Amino acid sequence: QVQLVESGGGLVQAGGSLRLSCAASQRTSNWYKMGWFRQAPGKEREFIAAVSSPGGVTWYGDSVKGRFTISRDNVKNTVSLQMNNLQPEDTAVYYCAADSRGSVDSQTYNYWGQGTQVTVSS
Description:
The chain is mostly beta strands. The chain has no helices and eleven strands. It has strands spanning 4-7, 10-13, 18-24, 33-39, 46-52, 58-60, 68-73, 78-83, 92-99, 111-112, 116-121. β5 and β6 form a beta hairpin. The N and C termini lie far apart (40 Å).
């Protein structure tokens, strides 16, 4: 059973930073890509970022380009999301995801974490 466990969420003021981490129960080097999504109350799930393996190709959602950075560590089996210049509209539950099937779509995944809350105060 694959498990993805997110951590690092919390409350931060606008303009601040947080770093989310996702720990995987299996070797992340075996997965084609890993990504982050978020969902705010009353809104649809939104793609945030993804990173491929091998190669480390990255994709970002338009709303976070230039502010968020995704990275993966295949030795520690983790994927991280550095979030800078956070704004109240970034408030959401953030989910880690992994793709073991090799979908060419950067937003298709078959494993999901339980999520971590990020709240940005104005």
